[in-house]
Design a protein that fits this description.
Blueprint lengths: L6 E3 L10 E8 L7 E2 L5 E8 L5 E4 L2 E4 L3 E6 L6 E4 L8 E9 L15 H9 L4 E2 L2 H13 L6 H16 L4 E2 L3 H4 L8 H13 L6 H8 L3 H12 L3 H19 L4 H7 L5 H12 L3 H8 L3 E3 L1
Helix pairs in contact: 1-3, 2-3, 5-6
């Protein structure tokens, strides 16, 4: 059952023959609601300066940002927004770059070897990617000069160089796979097999011994191996998957919080509320209320 959120449709600024749109602006506040881009192959790179203390929402990730913030989003259905978060209005600098890029098409140049670092970054950005300060500073001058480039071809080359520079550094995935509705991945076949099983059976009791048998390893060996490959313990990963599906249900359905809790594998409502608060920084009801603001589909 769908939620009763109000959905508005806004026309994309890109024309039929346009490749890229750059909006470089100064403003006193964030007033754009949570939104997504309901068009395939539209990529967004969003830079924010002078907004320390404001809130960045990408999927089921809610984070207070510092003085510089840079996020890449390649999924058309991933909700995102920047919000004031009670911060006084000042001179916020925001640069939004939207461009067309069918990077997964079988004939795409991004599937060839020279573009491999960028391609891998674009795939990860389906969940939203936040870049560290070191990466932001490396492309800062290019970002802030992009809107002043008059020749379209030169501007596109500059954008490609920005993407390449960003692909060489670290970046943090923001939304969970479950919320962003993207396939789980891993560079280990054993870990991927377990991840896929968890993704299909998250609503059921999951036992360590069962998952270790699936990977053909002892519990202690697999626990170490899983943590090394994913950066999380097996229990932390299971909770994250369940919370991802729960947050998606909070947005997309009118099911009660108790119904969502049990349908996502949490054995008690109190445990669900505790884990949700720990993982998302707010209660399930607060999360739902935030997403029931007017949502724009661009």
């Amino acid at each position: 059952m769908k939620s009763d959120s109000i959905v508005l449709h806004e026309i994309m600024p890109l024309g039929d023959r346009d490749f890229m749109y750059v909006a470089d602006r100064y403003k006193s506040e964030f007033n754009y609601p949570i939104h997504c881009h309901d068009m395939m192959n539209i990529v967004e790179l969003n830079f924010v300066e002078n907004a320390a203390g404001c809130l960045r929402v990408v999927g089921d990730s809610n984070e207070v940002i510092g003085p510089y913030d840079l996020v890449l989003i390649t999924s058309p259905e991933l909700e995102h927004a920047w919000e004031q978060n009670g911060r006084p209005a000042t001179d916020i600098h925001e640069i939004t770059i939207q461009f067309r890029l069918d990077f997964d098409h079988k004939s795409s140049a991004f599937l060839t070897n020279p573009f491999d670092p960028i391609y891998k970054m674009l795939v990860r950005a389906r969940k939203g990617l936040a870049f560290p300060m070191s990466s932001i500073m490396r492309v800062y001058r290019q970002l802030t000069n992009l809107s002043s480039i008059k020749e379209g071809f030169v501007a596109v080359l500059e954008l490609l160089d920005i993407l390449y520079e960003l692909s060489k550094g670290e970046a943090t995935e923001l939304s969970s796979s479950a919320f962003a509705q993207v396939p789980v991945t891993s560079d280990s076949r054993r870990v991927l097999k377990v991840k896929n099983y968890i993704d299909a059976h998250y609503m059921e009791p999951l036992r360590l011994t069962q998952l270790c048998d699936m990977a053909g390893m002892t519990p202690s060996a697999f626990s170490r191996f899983f943590k090394l490959r994913t950066g999380k313990t097996l229990n932390e990963y299971i909770i994250d998957v369940r919370l991802g599906y729960a947050t998606r249900m909070l947005v997309d359905t009118t099911s009660t919080i108790a119904e969502i809790s049990y349908s996502c594998g949490f054995n008690t409502l109190s445990n669900f509320n505790r884990q949700f608060k720990k993982g998302k920084g707010c209660s399930p009801s607060e999360f739902r209320k935030k997403y029931r603001k007017t949502k724009i589909i661009i």
